[in-house]
Every structure is written in C-alpha cells, then in structure tokens.
Amino acid sequence: MIKTDILIIGAGPTGLFTVFEAGLLKLKCHLIDALPQAGGQCSELYPKKPIYDIPGFPEILAGDLTKNLLEQSKQFEPGFTLGERAETVEKQEDGSFIVTTNKGTKHQAPIVAIAGGLGSFEPRKPLIPNIASFEDKGVEYFIKDPEVYRDKRVVISGGGDSALDWSIFLADIASEVTLIHRRNEFRGALDSVEKVQELTSKGKIKLVTPAEVINVIGHNKVEGVVVAQSQHIDKEFIIETDHFIPLFGLSPKLGPIGNWGLEIEKNAIKVDNALDYQTNIPGIYAIGDVNTYPGKLKLILCGFHEATLMCQSAYKIINPGKKYVLKYTTVSGIDGFDGSRKESPKAVVKAIK
Ligand SMILES: Cc1cc2nc3c(=O)[nH]c(=O)nc-3n(C[C@H](O)[C@H](O)[C@H](O)COP(=O)(O)OP(=O)(O)OC[C@H]3O[C@@H](n4cnc5c(N)ncnc54)[C@H](O)[C@@H]3O)c2cc1C
C-alpha cells in the first residue's frame, strides 16, 4: 500500500505543479498516470510545440515546461505510479481513500486530487477491419520516440496538426514519408501546410490526397497499406511501408473516474470554484482540464491556480485547527523533503561609521 498526503491522479502540468504547492505546505504527494511518462498533453501530444501563454515565459516548448515542472517538484520527492490507470476509489472508515489501479497497485491518502485532464488518452482509430492485429507491430497511434523511424518507410494519415507536424519532422529522419489525407485541404496551421507543400515539391514527402488507407498488409508486422483514391473508390493501390501511423486525434474519455459517483457535466467533473475546487465528494478535488465550473478555461495557467487553492484547502482537512499563514517563498525560502534548502540572500546588517 502506497501512503501519501495527497494522491494525484494525472501527472500533467496541473498534477506536477500540485506537488510543488503541496510541498510548500509540507504535504507529500504521489502521482498516478496511465501514460508511461509525466507531462500529460504537453509531453504526449505536443512536446515540440512552443507555448506562448505561460506567465514569465515568453515562449517555452511544451516538453521543456514538463522538464521544468519536474525539476521544480523534485525537491518535494513525489512518488510516481506510471503506466497504470486509476480504476476504483473506496472511502475508508477513517475518512481516507484507497485508489486501486488497473494493475492492482493500491494507494491510500486522506485527499485525492483528480488532475486527469482530458481523461485517459484514447486515440481515434480508423475503421480498418484488421488494424488491431498490427498494433505495436508497425501500426502506432502516437509517436513516442521519433528515432524508431530512422531510415524506415512511414505512412502517416490524417489532416490535422499532428499529421502535418510529424510528417515534417520525420521527413529528415525516415527514409520515406507518405502523407495520406481523405481531403485535399488540411486543418492544420498555415505554416505547417506550407512547409508540407515545400517538402513535397522537394520530394521529401509524398502527398496522396484525396485518399484513405483501407487495409493493412503484412505477415506479423506491417509491410504495406492498401490505399483507395477517394474520387475513384475502385482505384486501389499498395504502398509498401514499415510503419502506418494514423493520427486522427484523441477522443477524450473520463474513463473509470466517471463511475466514482462524482457529479459530471459534459465529460468533466463539477467543482465548487467559489472555494477550493472540491467535488461533491468531500476530500476529492478536481483540478485542471478535468473540471468544470461557470467560466472555466482549459488552460495550463488556470490549472496552476486551481492547484494552489486546492492545496490550501487540503491542508486544512489534513491539519484540522492548525492555522496556516501564507508566506512568500522569497521570504520563507523552501525546505525540500530531500534536505535541500533554498533561500534568498539575507540582508547584510552593517553599521556605517
Ligand atoms: C495541441 C495543443 C496545444 C495546446 N496549447 C496550449 C497553450 O498554448 N496554452 C495553454 O495554456 N494550454 C494549451 N493546451 C492545453 C493544455 O495542454 C492543457 O490545458 C493542459 O495539458 C491541462 O493540464 P492537466 O494537467 O490538467 O491535464 P493533462 O495535460 O491532460 O494531463 C492529464 C493526465 O491525466 C492522466 N489520466 C487521466 N485519467 C487517468 C486515470 N484514470 N488514471 C491515471 N491517469 C489518468 C492522463 O494520462 C494525462 O497524462 C494545448 C493543448 C493541445 C492538445
């Protein structure tokens, strides 16, 4: 049984910043995430994209923001259960909660902070009858490590930012990149569309539109895809490839958390935003993209704010009757759980003779 003060479900930017804010209040955190790495959407969906609206950072790559958040929280020694999905919650007689994952790992805490973002990431899969038998054998719905595709032939399908950006990125890594989209028009950023056009004219990307992949072929691994030209559905041809990567986006699913007895509205958890982002179950909070309240904005900076207020409220539940006086970190410094101490230099008191 893993025991902690605040059990955070979701290691996205909101969950990671919660560790820091809780640490300032001397509360320990443990995070569960279904993904094998921390960072949520930032690391899974757009690690190489610059974000322009993080206060104090005129521009920061989403992957670097994750790195910084991990660095900032490190001194408070958070625990991680990664690659496991939080499935069930049980309230105990002493008021604490036991959260169990799909792999049976049990966690106990007086406070649960759901920072589950869009929920468990479920890729939208194309309706290709035999695709499931090729998953992880050349069919991938996410690109985790671009190096996997070095000197390999890759077919990407999709018409949004992910399909465009990864086609551009892999054009320098893979031996051959084919981008297939069922329309001639793309939904991505204009400069990405222009870049794909440029790389197509240089022969670095093969563009096949309007068309779609209707079958995957191979023995135990992907060896090719069958493509149908949309205008001539009877015109089919095979493209030989090592990888087929359909990038059709994610369908947000709250997943098992949706059955925890929480008030749900439009696939998000309703919270009391007038006070502390607590849900209808006392002791369970919902912060970041996963919650909803009047005026809610699904932005990283809003998740940071919600995490801060939530920790103050959790402190009062964990330390009933104990008064907390807000201190600036510039004044109090930071005492890490790892024994580190950060503080601003003290003023020098010296008489002037
Ligand atoms: C392409 C793109 C660009 C964006 N650009 C910006 C921008 O410029 N500025 C901005 O402010 N925002 C931007 N956003 C939105 C921003 O990424 C989100 O607001 C932010 O990631 C929310 O953080 P979070 O921690 O609340 O949730 P997430 O980042 O979604 O993290 C939630 C985590 O919870 C995990 N999880 C969910 N359910 C479970 C479960 N049952 N068990 C275990 N783990 C679970 C998920 O695996 C995930 O890792 C962008 C989003 C996208 C997709």
UniProtKB/TrEMBL annotation:
Q: Which cofactor does it need?
A: FAD
- CC cofactor note: Binds 1 FAD per subunit.
| Primary enzyme class | oxidoreductase
- Which domain of life does this protein belong to? Bacteria
What are the FAD/NAD(P)-binding domain coordinates in residue numbering? 5-294
Record's family?
Belongs to the ferredoxin--NADP reductase type 2 family.
Q: What is this protein called?
A: Ferredoxin--NADP reductase
